[in-house]
Amino acid sequence: MLSTQQIDTLSKEFESKTPQEIIQWAVDEFLPEIALSSSFQTQSMPLLHMVANIKRSVPVFFIDTGYHLWETLMFREWLASEWKLNVIDLYRDPRWNTFVLHNIRALPFEDPNLCCYLHKVQPMQKALKDLKAWISGIRRDQTAVRAQAKILELQEDGLLKVNPLLNWTKADISQYAKENNLPSHPLLSKGYRSVGCAPCTIAIGADEDERAGRWAGRGKVECGLHTDMFKKKDYEEVKQAFHLEIK
Ligand code: SF4
């Protein structure tokens, strides 16, 4: 087991390594207790491609929120089959089903943080519970929160988050995709440069920020997977945190 100091030292060393070198280290160190998460967007393709080339059996967690655009689901199916990926779909805790079904239209608009928490954060927390490492595709150039991230981040519960693409830019992603002839999400050509759930994603102009089409006008830029929202909370704690009175 790596100490906090060793992780800090390695993280600094990895600032000058390639994403492939970082992924190879993580796979050698943690397989089979490691997984990658992916939303199957165009910008997710390079990381999926690298991991598949290094170790195809690494589980790929896809969060099926129930609010996805059908193009995303179709693309996920096609790519998993084409690249023979080990995709595992994650779903919300069924204890929330009655609450969500009663609020299904309003929830993403009236309380998107709760909606993301139930549909993304909690399922991911559960899936990662028994693992030692999580490979994520975040980049420093995406949001202010991500700009502060480190390549290796030890979570409170001992899980090591590995961010091999942290130093890559939008241009690096495009360059890698071009060089390797990677496929694109079917909605990219229609102006969807960052694709989330249907109620929270709009097409944007070519000059706009990559994530401008996510939760537009709602003052939200992160789903919570990569922020302080990613904390251990059980069903009762979540009800209290979000002031829910559910019998
Ligand atoms: S992105 Fe929107 S619909 Fe999807 S989980 Fe978050 S708030 Fe809900």
Secondary-structure map:
Elements: H1 4-14, H2 19-30, E1 34-37, H3 45-54, E2 59-63, H4 70-82, E3 86-90, H5 97-102, H6 107-110, H7 112-128, E4 133-135, H8 144-147, E5 152-154, E6 160-162, H9 170-179, H10 235-241
Helix pairs in contact: 2-3
Iron/sulfur cluster (SF4) binds next to helix 7.
Number of strands: 6
Count of helical segments? 10
Describe the oligomeric state of these chains in a short phrase.
single chain
Largest sheet: 6 strands, mixed
Considering DSSP H and I runs of 4 or more, what fraction of the residues is helical?
Answer: 25-40%
CATH architecture tag: 3-Layer(aba) Sandwich
Shape, please?
A: globular
Strand adjacency order, main sheet: 3-2-1-4-6-5
Structural class: alpha/beta
Task: Work out the strand percent.
Answer: 5-15%
Contiguous uncertain segments of 5+ residues: none
Ligands in the model, by name, code or SMILES, are: iron/sulfur cluster
Radius of gyration: 18 Å
Instruction: Give the CATH level 1 class.
Output: Alpha Beta
Q: What do you see in this structure?
A:
This protein has 247 residues and is α/β, with parallel strands linked by helices. The protein has a single domain (4-232), classed as HUPs (Rossmann fold). The protein is 38% helix and 9% strand. It contains ten helices and six strands; from the N terminus they run H-H-E-H-E-H-E-H-H-H-E-H-E-E-H-H. A six-stranded mixed β-sheet has the order 3-2-1-4-6-5. The mean pLDDT is 91. The protein binds iron/sulfur cluster (SF4). Residues 65, 67, 108, 112, 115-116, 119-120, 196-197, 199-200, 223 line the site of iron/sulfur cluster.
